[in-house]
Specification:
Rossmann fold
Length: 259
């Protein structure tokens, strides 16, 4: 297995840093290849601008079209090209980050904004009466799996079905479905640690054991069963789920799960 770890935390001695290091050592110990994109250590530029597209930037800037033109021409900046090559190399991607303000840190979102360019992560495939491009289960990155390893400050009860913050599955849906599954990556159920602000050194032993077990079962873990876009569940071009396919009583994001 070839694994890319995209790590987003400013403190190397943090819990996130320890989880990242443990992932590297655990996977390498059983023969897997691992590469790490440590975004803070890389001083990753988190904002999209015309400099990303060099001579292919238009005025006024048109981010989707310009990014696609630069991708096709091979004129994207070297840092973006390097990350795209890592994604094509990997068959598994682990995103290690803290949940900040209900989502990923800005530097990680900036990695997505800059690396997932038009013609690379989206805007591929045919548009016809039966297909709406290759996305949501198809696309450039199809055949890969991804795991979100997320640390959360609050207790698990706050992120339950009746919790004030909403279910963690709903908070992560935009990442799982909209960032990963859109370009074809199958999202695995996340590894979430709660109440990390109250975690002690003694607690870490159990955390490390659970994380190692999860890492060693990545290859056998079933992905979240999202519905693919072009295989009959959705009307095209409206992309509405066909009537009668949802289980009784299911609504919201859960409509887009096959089971």
């Amino acid at each position: 297995m070839k694994t890319l770890i995209v790590y987003a935390h400013p403190e190397p001695k943090s819990l996130n840093g320890s989880l990242k290091d443990l992932a590297v050592s655990t996977l390498e110990s059983v023969g897997h290849e691992v590469r790490v994109s440590d975004l803070y250590a890389m001083n990753w530029k988190a904002v999209v601008d015309a400099a990303d597209y060099g001579p292919d930037a238009s005025s006024p800037l048109k981010v989707p079209l310009d990014s696609g033109r630069a991708f096709d021409a091979g004129t994207l900046t070297p840092d973006v090209l390097a990350e795209q090559r890592k994604l094509l190399w990997a068959d598994t991607v682990i995103f290690q980050f803290p949940l900040w303000w209900y989502t990923m840190p800005a530097i990680l979102k900036g990695w997505v904004d800059r690396v997932f360019t038009y013609r690379f992560a989206y805007g591929v495939g045919e548009h016809s009466d039966t297909k709406y491009g290759e996305r949501f289960g198809e696309g450039t990155l199809a055949g890969r799996k991804a795991l979100l390893s997320v640390t959360v400050g609050g207790p698990e009860s706050h992120y339950s079905a009746r919790g004030i913050n909403g279910p963690i599955e709903d908070l992560l849906f935009p990442i799982h479905h909209g960032i990963l599954y859109y370009p074809g990556i199958e999202a695995l159920p996340p590894f979430v640690l709660y109440s990390v602000d109250r975690m002690t050194v003694e607690d870490y032993a159990d955390v490390a054991k659970a994380w190692e077990q999860r890492l060693l079962t990545l290859e056998s873990t079933e992905p979240i069963p999202f519905r693919p876009q072009n295989f009959g569940d959705y009307e095209i071009p409206s992309l509405h789920l066909k009537e009668g396919l949802e289980p009784t009583g299911r609504a919201g994001f859960g409509l887009h799960l096959r089971r």
